[in-house]
Specification:
Blueprint: H1 5-27, H2 31-42, H3 96-99, E1 114-116, E2 123-124, E3 127-128, E4 137-140, E5 144-147, E6 152-157, E7 162-165, E8 179-186, E9 194-198, E10 210-215, E11 224-230, E12 235-241, E13 252-258, E14 267-271, E15 274-276, E16 278-284, E17 296-297, E18 311-320, H4 326-335
Antiparallel strand pairs: 1-18, 2-3, 3-4, 4-7, 5-6, 6-18, 7-17, 8-13, 8-18, 9-10, 9-17, 10-11, 11-12, 12-16, 13-14, 14-15
Amino acid sequence: MSLSRPLIVLLLGTLACTNDRDKDELTDTDTDTGGADSSDTTDSADSADSSLPGDSGDSGAVGDSGDSGSAGDSGSTGDSGDSGDSGDSGDSGDSGAVACTRTVFGSTVPTPLAFWTMDASSVSGTTLADAQAAAPGTLVGGPSTTAGVCGEALDLDGVDDFVRIDNEALFDFSTATPFTIAAWVKVPGTLGPFVFGKSDNAVAAGGAPGYYAGLRDAANNHRALLDLVNDPGNLGRRVQTSTGGYVDDTWHHLVYIYDGSNTVAGISFVVDGQSVTSTTIVNSNPGDILNDVKPAIGIRGTGASDPAFRPFQVDELGVWGVALTVTQAQALYAALGGTP
């Protein structure tokens, strides 16, 4: 039986289209790698790539078997430019899901009183688990998880989100008690947030005694700040970093250290693995800063009449009952995804 010429042309065209579609499906095996890695090669200052929340192709997101940053991705071994992002000296956050380890606790870094990983697996309903099982938090306002430096981070909307820590007594630090607060923080916009605090409204007359760690606003160059305060009277040891610029929508590892000496010299900072100099804002003996207020992540304290909600993301937040040394703070930074 002979076929007409038009029918032959039609059959050949159908076969060609089928072959082209099959070819596309075979070669398009790792399309998200191009999207996620493009920021690595162009933005060396971005320490996390979690500026793309929800981008499951980012190596900071756990469980992405298609990304070259995830263990077991045999399909991406040929990408010498992005082998897990471990070679990206400016992108400390991208190595998060692969490089982060908390095994340093109890060895090169003292064991913290409490440590909140902020991973999605640590959230159950409105409860945020503490990896040390000592101080679980209560999520207030509905904060969500997003891509972080080590797995996921907690995203606070700046409207009503914060985390209340119910084990108040664990964080009763006096001016004679050394302590350390450390966290990865990423802040959009221009407002500096309160990272961790246990005080009432520490800037208004009649506010309760306490302490808080955070970042300052644009007028103060977004410097890191640690305050041991006792109002009224604006008494306290209030110290900030000499340099700032930490509110830039980029991940920064902030370590706030107090040695228990009741002096401004006893307050120090390690930022992104580097010891930084500081300047004094207020230097007067605050006296007793103990209070019965529950501490909080994301506001200055749960008793604050002006909690100062600010939008930001926070990851790997720990509190120690000792003053970490600079070497220990640097070891913590390196263990949690930072580039030494």
